[in-house]
Give the backbone structure.
Amino acid sequence: MRVVLVELAPAGGLFQFSLQMGDALAGAGAGTGCEVEIVTGRDPELAPREPGCSLVPILPTWWPRGTEGASRPVYLARRAWRALRYVLAWFVVSAYLVRRPPDVVQWSEFRFWFEGAFVAVLASLLRRRGTRMAVVAHTPVPRRMGTAKGSDEVDGLLITKAFKAAYKRVDCVFVLGERARERFMEAWPDTPRVEVIPHGTEDVYDADHVPAADTTGPTALFFGNWDRYKGVDLLLDAWPRVRDSEPEARLTLAGSIGADVDGPALVARAEALDGVTAIPHYVEHDAVAPLFAAARCVVLPYVRVYQSGVAHLAANFARPVVATDVGDLRSVIVDGETGILVPPADAEELARGLCRLLADAEEAGRLGRGARERVSRESDWSEIARTVCTTYSSLHGGEAA
């Protein structure tokens, strides 16, 4: 079975997810026998590890670096140029699929109305040539991009119509949790088939040489884009309470600045707090492990999310997570066993959870080991690949319901 995975960004969390799924689908351990191509942007961050998985880096897309330090005119010009390249990427991948229709094409999630329109047209066109179409909806309903309401779900007429048309025509949508499935079906009830799969481990990072959490100092790590929905403001509200209780505690904030926050103001606020180190740019692959090695715990103060690759990445490095109890995070973070869950939008409880681990290295080590064991057991890529490939085969065995 020839499978094409489309991931527009050639670096970052979604690219790494697609790469790991591609390797798993092509790997002998899963017994799937798939020939996998990953169509992505130029200069990909990582290469496949399985012989049956290959990269097709033909898209005019870019690494997910932010716009740190850019003036307003430069920022706006860069956004306009990237928007043009992004639309062009959809024409390029569409031409590639029409020229060589695969058995299955699987899209990473899409966020803009024109992406839904492309998928709807391609699904109808390629189905007549034997191609079945799937989507991994990391977010059931996309968030507003580049606005002050970045944590809110989109609700515009154009994007709603485009996404309804796309999801009605694809053969299957994969979501990463039961809550995500409920929200997806509520938003897009005409979707023929929705399947739940685990997120998968983050084994593109070598964790074997990372010291245990209980050997580190009292450092917490926030890792990922500084988007509005990630709750960095809440974390900065909580941090003075942490320092009052644990004067030696430190916090590292690492990741690109999102388009829906005031980056300079947020960085200035972070750097004005005692014990905070800000790394406001994309963290390349080789620099990730040292950040986690220096941390005793990871903090995810999300406002709204359904699943998080960072939670799985923390588990890969045997780091416990202090997270707000939103979406499907509790499927990864079991309170008191693999991490600590706190109520959303509660700075005091977030601070209390952080203090618990920053003051108790032994507890952090115990929860970190539990996190790694749980994710290794329940998010194995070979099992995910078997589930996905079985779904693909059933789609080719008959029309989607």
Q: What stands out?
A: The chain has two domains: 2-200+380-397, 213-378.
